[in-house]
């Protein structure tokens, strides 16, 4: 029976079963109660409380400014809405790099204060000590390789990563390091499709792609991009399923016109 045919809570073990059965994993971001409720109702397997909230919710240019308190607040909002999906929370920049004790403390706060189900960290061998320390507390960890947005000032560009052999070799090695450390899944962002396929076939844990081709074990998109709420971001990998930017603007204009003309509220809308 399909995983989706069962009304059970999605867990890290569910994702492992899905990879084993060849069933694709769906993942979307959410940052607030109302949209998280709709995403969960829509049947998404994993909800990522992403530090991309810095971009789509706060209007910042990068994800770097997000604090741990910010992430816990958004995760609390999402957790109240979700019945089925696995909730993964991004650990923000500065909470795990170079200090494994700080990483563990930060992850514990996410789990205790926001009832998160797992955390996600960006990077490979450089952060493996932090990953291992978080795992000692029984906290599931999702990895993230390829384009890692928290390192944008290091990269200097949001272009495709690991196109050159040296970086591709390191990415493959890092993926194995993360698997061996105990990560339950890895996001592969903006890397060549053939490389993502190679990594996905080499690992026993699921890969979740974003701009990494069709051969990953699952896919993730930023919800606001998928819904067409944010339209100033149009990478090649993005498919927009709605045009909410114009629909919402048109609805607001109609409301304003109705109020100004005296049409709203009418007698049926009054007490």
Number of strands: 8
Number of domains: 2
Shape: globular
The span between the termini is 51 Å
Unreliable spans = none
Helix content: 40-55%
SSE-based structural type: alpha/beta
CATH class of the largest domain: Alpha Beta
Assembly state (oligomeric): single chain
Specify the CATH homologous superfamily of the largest domain: Phosphoenolpyruvate-binding domains
**Strand order across the biggest sheet?**
1-2-3-4-5-6-7-8
Query: What Rg is obtained from the alpha carbons, in whole angstroms?
Result: 20 Å
Individual helix count = 11
Under CATH, the topology of the largest domain can be stated as: TIM Barrel
Sheet of most strands: 8 strands, parallel, barrel
Beta fraction: 5-15%
Assigned CATH architecture of the largest domain: Alpha-Beta Barrel
Overview of the molecule:
It is a single chain. With 271 residues, the chain is of the alpha/beta class. It has 2 domains: 3-240, TIM Barrel; 244-271. The protein contains 11 helices and 8 strands. It has helices at residues 12-21, 33-41, 53-56, 68-79, 100-114, 128-136, 152-155, 165-181, 193-202, 223-226, 244-261, and strands spanning 25-29, 46-49, 86-90, 118-120, 141-146, 185-189, 207-210, 218-221. Helix 4 packs parallel to helix 5 and helix 8 (165-181) packs parallel to helix 9.
List the helices and strands and how they pair.
Layout: H1 12-21, E1 25-29, H2 33-41, E2 46-49, H3 53-56, H4 68-79, E3 86-90, H5 100-114, E4 118-120, H6 128-136, E5 141-146, H7 152-155, H8 165-181, E6 185-189, H9 193-202, E7 207-210, E8 218-221, H10 223-226, H11 244-261
Parallel strand pairs: 1-2, 1-8, 2-3, 3-4, 4-5, 5-6, 6-7, 7-8
């Amino acid at each position: 029976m399909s995983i989706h045919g069962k009304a059970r809570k999605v867990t890290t073990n569910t994702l492992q079963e899905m990879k084993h059965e060849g069933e694709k994993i769906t993942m979307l971001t959410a940052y607030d109660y109302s949209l998280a409720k709709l995403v969960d109702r829509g049947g998404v397997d994993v909800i990522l409380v992403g530090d991309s909230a810095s971009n789509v919710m706060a209007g910042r240019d990068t994800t770097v400014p997000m604090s741990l308190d910010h992430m816990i607040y958004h995760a609390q909002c999402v957790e109240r809405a979700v019945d089925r999906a696995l909730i993964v929370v991004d650990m923000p920049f500065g909470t795990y790099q170079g200090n494994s004790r700080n990483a563990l403390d930060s992850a514990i706060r996410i789990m205790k204060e926001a009832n998160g189900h797992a955390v996600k960290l960006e990077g490979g061998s450089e952060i493996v000590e932090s990953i291992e320390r978080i795992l000692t507390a029984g906290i599931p960890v999702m990895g993230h390789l390829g384009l890692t947005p928290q390192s944008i000032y290091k990269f200097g560009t949001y272009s495709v990563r690991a196109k050159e052999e040296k970086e591709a070799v390191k990415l493959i090695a890092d993926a194995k390091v993360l698997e061996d450390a105990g990560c339950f899944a890895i996001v592969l962002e903006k890397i060549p499709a053939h490389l993502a396929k190679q990594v996905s076939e080499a690992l026993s844990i699921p890969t979740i792609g974003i701009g990494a081709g069709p051969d990953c074990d699952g896919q993730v998109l930023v919800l606001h991009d998928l819904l067409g709420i944010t339209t100033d971001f149009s990478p090649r990998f993005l498919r927009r399923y709605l045009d909410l930017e114009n629909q919402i603007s048109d609805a607001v204009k109609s409301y304003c016109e109705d109020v100004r003309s005296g049409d709203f509220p009418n007698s049926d809308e009054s007490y």
